[in-house]
TrEMBL record, chains A, B:
This is Dihydrolipoyl dehydrogenase. The keyword Metal-binding does not apply. Its cofactor is FAD. Belongs to the class-I pyridine nucleotide-disulfide oxidoreductase family. It comes from Alkanindiges illinoisensis. Pfam families: Pyr_redox_2, Pyr_redox_dim. Keywords: FAD, Flavoprotein, NAD, Nucleotide-binding, Oxidoreductase. Its EC number is 1.8.1.4. The active site is at 448 (proton acceptor). The keyword Nucleotide-binding applies. It comes from the Bacteria. Binds 1 FAD per subunit.
């Protein structure tokens, strides 16, 4: 039992914590990082990296089949172990990189353990009492699980935390949840020869809010996936080492309910993530923090109310986005180090990408965000069915939707459901962040033949819908 | 023999001519397009489109082999006829689209034939004399051929005009010329199982000017290509229906010459393109136009000296770039229609892409352009050997080079030798066209894990090399 005093304590050493640390050490070396789990990142161990690795293998599996369209005929054998081995080998390589960063920090800056707030500037870590001028909460999030499923299915219940540890691809799997993670993994596994059933609660699909694109995405994905939307899960149990799932399905506006059951080797729960904020004892500071969830800090300063506490990364967001976590960590780090002098930072323009095929991406404001805020906007769609380069690639599917401001002619947002949307989304997000108008965007070079030319078509259509700019 | 008088005559109906026509008809219907060849575009018939189609097939062939790295094992059979059939089928589809545009023009706007200037406002087309207030030359270019080779090799000598008509992939080919077209086709054919020898004159490689990237590109391409650089061709002839080519090879700074010969089914001449400007009788207007080549018009107005003549598209450039041809046609169209009131138009920021694997791209000013103009610049390189997403994709090769202005901190240019460079190049070209500084670029969102993050690394390195911005 001892007493320590720091300028800044960072709780959590993932992406946000590491990013905060990099800022804090520019101002003080009297810093401590308290971390309860492994000293790497969600991104490298169980997030972006292993999922993209699996998706990449799936792309090759799909390309091997699809090559016949180009006159290239393959007899394909998928090695279910080798696929997972590459995923794990490179996941460990990336995790090692993340750990190597932390390994370079001085030992006195690191403390393994769980922090528990006593008041706004004091914690317990084990038996020790730690006081600090300011602290940063960057404890991340974990996949949500239903305790009853856990009990019923035991090791047959997977989450994104465990699926990448499988020694081989499963024969069959039920993926529950049709958000970004559910869609990405369900499609990748199906392309790798796994028998996949995807269960959706409503008709949510990946990261799209535009109703037309959601319909199109459902149509595209159900070509290769057994997708049961509008379903509610009644019961799950094990039978002869197989997962059995009973569900009801009721379509909106219809009275009839349909019941059914599916069986598979595993069940992957992809039903969202839960913040790790509730185990920190924040309610000792103020009872109003009891049972808090999601973003409660100031979005531009990361400060929690007027306390010397800053919150950054997945712990406070519903979407686990690495680039946002890194940026929030940076802001929290700067402000914690300068506390009580804090400043707001310009946020990034929204950018989110689902790595399905075709990809789904949102840049700037989504259809839903604009509609909810009653923002006036014009909307233009371009189908990629006949887009030149996409036709060359035999990837001529999907569509894009652009949203523009009728007054300023600025581009407000975009939703994309096309191959290589990740690149188009960067182009659009950067343009939106700069406040470019449709006219300014149309003065930019578009090479030929490229997928970007579809954006130009959409911009031309959008301009045609806008009233003349006031001179 | 008859006399006609027009407001604008457009000579050539390709990309630049069509683009000019679209502008001219906004102002006058007294317009004539005179065209000597087919009423489609170089791009669709023998340029961008068929080459990208062949390259796409090559990607699938390469992916089929490469899939084993991901645990996906293919026994691959390449159907040499089917590969070419898809290329031809879709080429005809794109050509049909280009023709369909022209089919919509009124018959009285079109005239098949060859135009010959008598003076600055009068031509002959066949027996007819045509006078016009203004004219636009958009007659394009054709692949350069050596008449001796033509005579010696007959139908065994191919150019980009003829290679896409082959009924099947050849067994073997000698590609002469290591510029964009030579590299693209040599690599694609090699990946499709054709035995390829690539002959280079100096050590030019594709579209890169940066010495480090050129070295790297040579190293990457010679892994899969028999590339004989610094060669001069002594003799070509046919022997038992095979092309035989004798060459000398002398490395710069070395006295020893090496001689050799290669044999193949075909020889593809990819030694540049020649403007079609010299057959128009421009020397009847002024003898100084005798034997002219390349860009002689004003680069911002497209006007030829102070004449009512505008020049647009491949006819006046060494690089055949569709998006530049379309833009030049637009400018020429507007200015010809308004003649004598003409105005300069802002040019696009330079953007060129070679669709090799990895791709080569230049955005803004190249290393060579900056060096030749004695522009002060700082330079930062990032290798993609350990880039995250590229590692996931097993495409972690190549590098990028960014050039920045030490005074203004603006990004001046970039050269890229990485996979998917086409997308990164758009991001950079748009940023350069807007005059963004390194600091402004670093405030943009970079998703994770994406290839764009390599740009951020390069921007950080570039910033570290620049003196502080004057406050």
């Amino acid at each position: 039992m001892s007493q320590h005093s720091y300028d800044v304590v960072i709780i959590g050493s993932g992406t946000a914590g590491q990013s905060a640390y990099n800022q804090v050490v520019k101002h003080t070396s009297n810093v401590l990082v308290v971390n309860a789990g492994p000293w790497d990142t969600t991104c490298a161990r169980v997030g972006c990296m292993p999922s993209k690795l699996l998706i990449e293998a799936a792309k090759y599996a799909q390309a091997s089949q699809h090559a016949s369209e180009f006159g290239i005929h393959n007899q394909t054998r998928i090695d279910a172990k080798a696929v997972m081995q590459r995923v794990q080998h490179l996941r460990d390589y990336f995790t090692g990189h993340a750990q190597a960063v932390v390994d370079q920090w001085p030992a006195e800056h690191k403390r393994q353990g769980k922090a528990h707030f006593i008041d706004a500037t004091t914690f317990k870590v084990g038996e020790d009492t730690i006081s600090t001028k300011a602290s940063i909460i960057a404890t991340g999030s974990i996949p949500r699980v239903d305790p009853q499923w856990q009990q019923a299915l035991k090791h047959k219940l997977l989450t994104s935390d465990t699926i990448f540890n499988l020694p081989a691809l499963p024969k069959s799997i039920i993926v529950v949840g049709s958000g970004a993670i559910g869609i990405e993994l369900a499609q990748a596994l199906a392309r790798l020869g796994v028998e996949v059933t995807l269960m959706g609660k409503g008709n949510d699909i990946g990261g799209l809010s535009n109703p037309d694109l959601r319909k199109l995405a459902t149509a595209l994905l159900t070509r290769e996936l057994n997708y049961i939307d509008n379903s509610s899960i009644e019961q799950v149990y094990l039978e002869a080492d197989q997962v059995v799932l009973h569900y009801h399905r009721s379509l909106p506006g219809q009275h009839n309910q349909h019941s059914g059951q599916v069986k598979a080797e595993y069940l992957l729960a992809a039903i969202g993530r839960e913040s790790n904020i509730n185990t920190l004892g924040l309610d000792n500071i103020d009872t109003k923090y009891q049972g808090i969830k999601g973003a409660i800090q100031h979005p531009l300063t990361m400060q929690l109310d007027d306390l010397p506490i800053f919150i950054a990364g997945d712990v406070s967001t519903t979407q686990a986005l690495q680039h946002e976590a890194a940026n929030a960590g940076r802001v929290a780090g700067i402000n914690a180090a300068h506390y009580p002098e804090i400043q707001p930072f310009e946020p990034y323009t929204g950018l989110s990408i689902v790595f399905s095929q075709p990809q789904m991406a949102t840049a700037g404001q989504s259809h839903q965000a604009l509609t909810r805020a009653n923002t006036p906007f014009a909307c233009a769609e371009v189908s990629y069915r006949t887009q030149g380069r996409a036709t060359i690639q035999d990837k001529n599917e999907g569509a894009i939707q652009l949203y523009g401001c009728p007054q300023s002619h600025k581009l407000l947002g975009a939703e994309l459901l096309v191959h290589e949307a990740e690149h188009l989304a960067h182009l659009l997000a950067w343009s939106i962040q700069q406040g470019l108008t449709i006219e300014q965007l149309l003065a930019m070079p578009f090479y030929h033949p490229v997928l970007e030319e579809g954006l130009r078509t959409a911009l031309v259509r959008l301009r045609a819908q806008l009233p003349e700019l006031a001179p």
